[in-house]
Write a structure and sequence with these properties.
With about 270 residues, this protein is mainly α. The chain is built from nine helices and two strands, in the order αββαααααααα. It has a two-stranded antiparallel sheet with strand order 1-2. α4 packs antiparallel against α9. The longest helix has about 60 residues. It is elongated, with a radius of gyration of 28 Å.
Length: about 270
Amino acid sequence: MSKWTIANQAEVETWAAIRDNGRSSLSRATTLSLLYLLAALAVGAYLLSAVAQICEGAIYFVGWDVEEVQLTWMETMMWIYAGAAVIALAGWLLVQLSLRGRLPVLLSVFVAKIPGLGRAIQTIALANFCESIYRSVVGSQTYGDAFRFASQEARFTPLQNWAAHSALRLDAGQSWEHALSHPPIKDHPLAAVTALGQGQLSREETIRMWHQAASDSHSLVDSRSRRTVRHLFRTGLVGSVLTATFAILAVNTAIVMTINGLTFFGWW
């Protein structure tokens, strides 16, 4: 493992395929979930609008007094559905940009806090980072140069900034533990490297350490991406069904109120 071989290149290409597959599967899952939700919101808003127009001007009796059916709450619901669609589109855009590493730090941290999805995005970035360090170590680069190069390849802004700062600390001669303190990702491959790297390791041991970190992180990418995709599909389906069901119940309530007025329900 001290020299770059065809086997090393094949493994690196396999890792790249795992990361690309993880990104594309997460992108497709979020897009389909968005389409499910937008379809439900559109159908719900249409039903609310149509029934509100039909029921406009409907009356009911309270004793001998005539009262007009108030359906302003339906208009409020339509605006809520429209706002939910805008929020869903904004969230989808943030996720797509995060997968490509094009978000500023604060927005990247926000996306990373999304249950399941944020963890999967971080794992893909960590796998890219560990592979980059592994390639640099095999190429006999210094840790400062390796971290600096990895900061350019990682597609997660907090990790990019952390790697760049770590490179400066390593170049300044600071200890391994201090240089790698407070990483933005807490997964075990990086934690293991931080702990093991404090000792005096030979070049072969260093290569094996980063190879293991890269291998473990890509295994995490594969498992977490699959699990997150299933979670996104379930969430999108359940969310869209609940959204449409809520609109149907609201429409049913308005229709019942109107029919009751036409049958003089309030008279009694």
